[in-house]
Each structure stands twice: as C-alpha cells, then as structure tokens.
Amino acid sequence: MRFTTIDQYNYRQVCSLSVMPEQSGYLSSAPMILARAYAFRHQNSEVSVIEEGEDQLGLVMTREAEPGEIILDQFFIDQRFQHRGYGRKAMELLLQNLRERQVKRIVLCYREADQAAAHLYRSLGFAETGERDEDEILMELIL
Fold it and tell me: What's the predicted TM-score (pTM) here?
C-alpha cells in the first residue's frame, strides 16, 4: 500500500472514487476534497490517493494546523474496497508516515452518527477531546 500524489495524470480517476450512499452525509466527495485542499493550501494541505497495486482504494487529506500538528481533514475508502481491512491498513501507514515526519499531534473529527469511523479511530489510539464543532466530535492522537 502507498500514498500517491494526485496529478494531471490520475485526477480524473481519483474524482470517481466514492463512498456508499448511506455514508455520503459523513464525508465530502472526491472533487470537493480536492477543492478543499486548494482552499487550505496556505496550511500545506496534501491530498493523496491510497493505492495498492493498480487499484485506487481511497483518499486522504491532511493539513498543518501548526508546526508538529496535523489535521486529518478527510479520509475514505472507495465503496468497492470497503470491509476488507484497507481503511485500518491505510490509517496505520499514515500514522507511521506522520511519526517519521516528527508530527507530535494529529487532530480529526467525525460525525456522531458515523460509529464505524469512531470505532476505527479509537482502536488506533485516538481519544475524544471533549470539543465539538457543530455535529462533529473532535479527536486527537498524541504521538
């Protein structure tokens, strides 16, 4: 598994990635994630496609909140590849990469109704901060 930068050669295929219809209320679409990354470019936003072999499995977007702190802004596995362990594997690889970059804290949020995401994040060591952003619950992981 690897993270690949989105460029002029793969962005069209990336834009076709999507989640199951019942999950669409929890996450932005792939084109919206790309637009969001552009809007947050001043915070060193990065969007990568999660790949294994020739398959594009999903997307991840991060941005820098401050030195040593990363916001995990968006993360999803395409509906064709869900329930196969790719989400956990991708998150473990992302955490390893962030540790190697000397990141000290990762912040993310999830919608309260998205208990699958909450379970994944908790199992990886994220804890709720007690803060909310409207209907989203904030979590953090101290590395």
Answer: 0.93
